[in-house]
Design brief:
The protein is of the alpha+beta class. The chain has twelve helices and eight strands. The strands form two sheets. A four-stranded mixed sheet has the order 1-4-5-8. The chain is globular and about 80 Å long. Bound molecules: flavin-adenine dinucleotide.
């Protein structure tokens, strides 16, 4: 049962039809094929087409490059894109940074970035993680040293997803090693075409491509600084809260969802259901087995439970459910469940195998589910800190 089914009036239905037509035109098999091959989570043609309609930032007013859509239409748009697997990582990362760039950035820089980001011509990736600073983000070591009106940046970022298709990296750097760790940090919007920057691919189990970004003597004017010197912790927390769905408006349509990984579980479930309903050689369909029905029902319950869980907890519940049920679903058909897309006999065109791998990353990026539980415990339940303050 789909508890989230929407009743649309004729105007809203016309909007949904226009989104479906857009998806048919731009989220093509060629887009899917490229995405399977590259894992980049980004398709430039699609992204620019979204930008041309104001749909990179659909809720922004038209005069700022958005489409002025109300919450229901935004929900319809986002759900159609996810349900049809439109690659969208850079749309997400870019949007996470824009309010912070607008608030703390140089006004001229910010207005250009916001305008072009809305059009789709500028994309922003997130440069937080380093080889020795992930969950413990205050430990970043990439150094930015001031020289008059310029800064020199040296160091290394890791898991910088989408850097190869981005114009800027929203980067956390260390500007003072003598201050307490979280007080010596500064954020820059680093143009990725500067001399001294090298981007190298990192392939993940889930098939997603991410990157190392190496910075060697990168020279950057001060106008690319976002926020005050050594105020980077505050700056970055605005973007991190947006990523975690903290402080996000709760709407009747999305439950304030930030990441909504249950939508991927719903796709995997569809594949498993269609496999289960297909009659096999002995004349029986797997769905006739109580065990199969129980697993499908548990996954369907997981989808609804996560969809009904508002942010910020949706991040953890939806990733947990996706990891757990994707593992259940891939085992249902036996070994054939493990066949990849394009292999003969692959179940659901390889979807069960794919979502089982894809699920693992959802418990890691944007902060792991373990760390996120700490955030909920400390910031929302008022429990004591899980780690000592340094
Ligand atoms: C596919 C992918 C894409 C990514 N994209 C980006 C990106 O675009 N930009 C970016 O900056 N980063 C990105 N990341 C990095 C991601 O945010 C980090 O991997 C994540 O924050 C964990 O950091 P870590 O890998 O250093 O693991 P660690 O921090 O070393 O954690 C190792 C393990 O210890 C656990 N742990 C650590 N601290 C605690 C604690 N206090 N309490 C309980 N458990 C704890 C963790 O949950 C984890 O299980 C991406 C990661 C992946 C896998």
């Amino acid at each position: 049962m789909n508890f989230a089914e929407l009743r649309l009036d004729p105007n809203e239905q016309a909007f949904r039809d226009s989104v479906e037509a857009f998806v048919r035109e731009f989220v093509t098999e060629a887009v899917h094929e490229r995405e399977r091959r590259t894992g980049s989570g980004f398709d430039e043609g699609l992204h620019l087409a979204l930008g041309a309609r104001g749909w990179v930032v659909p809720d922004w007013p038209v005069e700022r490059g958005g489409a002025g859509l109300d919450r229901l239409r935004v929900h319809v748009l986002e759900n159609e894109l996810v349900a049809n697997r439109a690659p969208g990582i850079l749309r997400a990362t870019t949007r996470l940074t824009l309010p912070t760039i607008a608030r703390f950035g140089d006004p001229e820089l910010a207005s250009g970035v916001l305008r072009e980001a809305a059009a789709g011509t500028v994309r922003v990736c997130l440069g937080y993680t380093e080889p020795d600073a992930g969950s413990d983000l205050a430990g970043v070591r990439t150094r930015a040293v001031r020289d008059g009106d310029m800064w020199q940046i040296d160091g290394q970022k890791m898991f910088t997803t989408g850097a190869q298709h981005s114009q800027y990296c929203f980067m956390l750097t260390r500007t003072d090693s003598d201050l307490p760790r979280h007080k010596g940090l500064t954020v820059f919007l680093v143009p990725l075409d500067l001399p001294g920057i090298e981007i190298a691919p990192v392939e993940t189990l889930g098939g997603e491509r991410t990157n190392f970004v190496y910075l060697d003597g990168v020279s950057l004017p001060d106008r690319f600084r976002i926020g005050d010197v050594n105020a980077g912790w505050k700056v970055v927390n605005g973007a991190l809260d947006a990523e975690h769905g903290i402080g996000q408006e709760q709407t009747p349509f999305n439950g304030g969802r930030a990441l909504g990984f249950e939508r991927y579980l719903a796709i995997a479930l569809q594949g498993a259901e269609s496999w289960a309903k297909t009659t096999t050689e002995d004349g029986r369909a797997p769905i006739q087995s109580a065990t199969v029905r129980e697993r499908l029902a548990a996954a369907a319950y997981g989808v609804e439970l996560a969809a009904a869980t508002p942010a910020p907890l949706n991040r953890t519940v939806s990733a947990d459910r996706l990891v757990r049920h994707a593992a259940d679903l891939v085992m249902l058909p036996g070994l054939e469940g493990l066949l990849t897309h394009g292999s003969e006999g692959a179940v659901a065109d390889g979807d069960l195998e794919y979502f089982h791998r894809f699920a693992q990353g959802t418990a890691i990026y944007g902060g792991t589910t373990e760390v996120f539980r700490n955030i909920v415990a400390e910031r929302f339940l008022g429990l004591p800190r899980s780690t000592p303050k340094r």
